[in-house]
């Protein structure tokens, strides 16, 4: 959308109705293509609205990710880190809300309630938008960004399960090899995945003070140092006293897949509105490295690795 064009949700809907579409995932909406990425109309409308109207505060930190790369975990850890001095173990917001409901999701919550930007919210904002599609105010305000990425094969398998989990029609589930070929062509929500990663990777190289680039696998393998690094980046490092009495471990336990997925709210609650509400339990599955091997053939793994390698070549980034 160019400056000067009308900026109401109605106009965004009109623009969206003219975009190229991809219907192959067969979930609750088709994907459409805008500013170089694929997106559900629902989130695109929210994203376009945010591009025009969101006024980032310099203290805002954006938690950025492609879907299924560790968003829920990153949100939970960040919420636990920034709230640790004002709540105790028994009243953390994470105990009665799914992590997605603890902070503003730019493409959804802002259009639903644009005044949320003002008072009383945490200085954390989540987005799946690619770096190049972030609202200009985020960059102008000099906001910090945290990005989390994940091996594309595991991210794909996670996405395929998620697509089954959120499907609202009675059509048969999408065969995994059909979904896989769409993914390899970049046709996935907020894809192409390689462009998503590349945008934030370059930004982190150019501006490491402002962009923290994390990997789901590092967070799983090296949880304590990674969580300490995240806390430092969020401007709330753990003091040596906190470290001594186990504050880091406590946060890690609170945010673990096991703990969160066993909370009542995440077993039985729903995220989002009535039409396309997503059962919270769909956000929690295995959380393992290499689960793709249970679903994809070695040849498929190689195909996706090759696509990624080709697209990322020359960037200095490898998975
Ligand atoms: P799997 O489907 O491989 O199990 P996102 O949060 O971006 O939607 O990503 C979802 C993936 O993160 C899922 O991976 C899910 O199981 C995993 N996940 C969710 N919460 C987690 C947590 N607290 N710790 C580790 N992994 C988590």
Automatic annotation (TrEMBL):
- Known InterPro entries for this protein? P-loop_NTPase, Sulfotransferase_dom
Q: Is Ligase there in the keyword field?
A: no
Q: What is this protein called?
A: Sulfotransferase
Q: What class of enzyme is it?
A: transferase
PANTHER family with a match to the protein in the record: SULFOTRANSFERASE SULT
- GO molecular-function terms, A-Z: sulfotransferase activity
UniProt organism field: Durio zibethinus
From which domain of life does this come? Eukaryota
Q: Does the keyword Transferase apply?
A: yes
Q: Domain named Sulfotransferase: which ranges?
A: 58-316
Pfam families per UniProt = Sulfotransfer_1
């Amino acid at each position: 959308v160019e400056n000067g064009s009308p900026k109401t949700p109605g106009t965004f809907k009109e623009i969206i109705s003219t975009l190229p579409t991809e219907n192959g995932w067969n979930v609750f909406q088709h994907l459409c293509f805008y500013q170089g990425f694929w997106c559900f109309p629902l989130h695109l409308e929210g994203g376009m609205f945010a591009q025009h109207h969101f006024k980032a505060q310099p203290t805002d930190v954006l938690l950025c990710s492609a879907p299924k790369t560790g968003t829920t975990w990153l949100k939970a850890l960040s919420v636990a880190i920034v709230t640790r001095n004002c709540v105790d173990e028994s009243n953390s917001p994470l105990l009665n809300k799914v992590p997605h409901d603890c902070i503003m999701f730019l493409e959804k919550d802002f259009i639903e309630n644009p005044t949320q930007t003002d008072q009383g919210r945490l200085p954390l904002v989540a987005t799946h938008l690619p770096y190049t599609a972030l609202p200009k105010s985020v960059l102008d305000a000099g906001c910090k960004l945290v990005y989390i990425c994940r091996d594309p094969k595991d991210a794909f398998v996670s996405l395929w399960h998620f697509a089954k989990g959120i499907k609202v029609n009675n059509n048969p589930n999408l065969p995994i090899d059909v979904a896989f070929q769409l993914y390899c062509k970049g046709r996935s929500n907020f894809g192409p995945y390689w462009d998503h990663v590349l945008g934030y990777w370059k930004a982190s190289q150019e501006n490491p003070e402002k962009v923290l680039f994390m990997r789901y696998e590092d967070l799983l393998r090296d949880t304590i140092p990674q969580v300490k690094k995240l806390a430092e980046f969020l401007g709330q490092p753990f003091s040596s006293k906190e470290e001594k009495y186990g504050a880091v471990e406590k946060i890690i336990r609170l945010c673990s897949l096991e703990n969160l997925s066993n909370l009542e709210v995440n077993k039985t609650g729903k995220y989002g509105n009535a039409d396309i509400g997503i059962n919270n339990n769909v956000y929690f599955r295995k959380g393992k490295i290499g689960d793709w091997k249970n679903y994809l053939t070695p040849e498929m793994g190689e195909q996706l690795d090759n696509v990624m390698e080709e697209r990322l070549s020359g960037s200095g980034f490898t998975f």
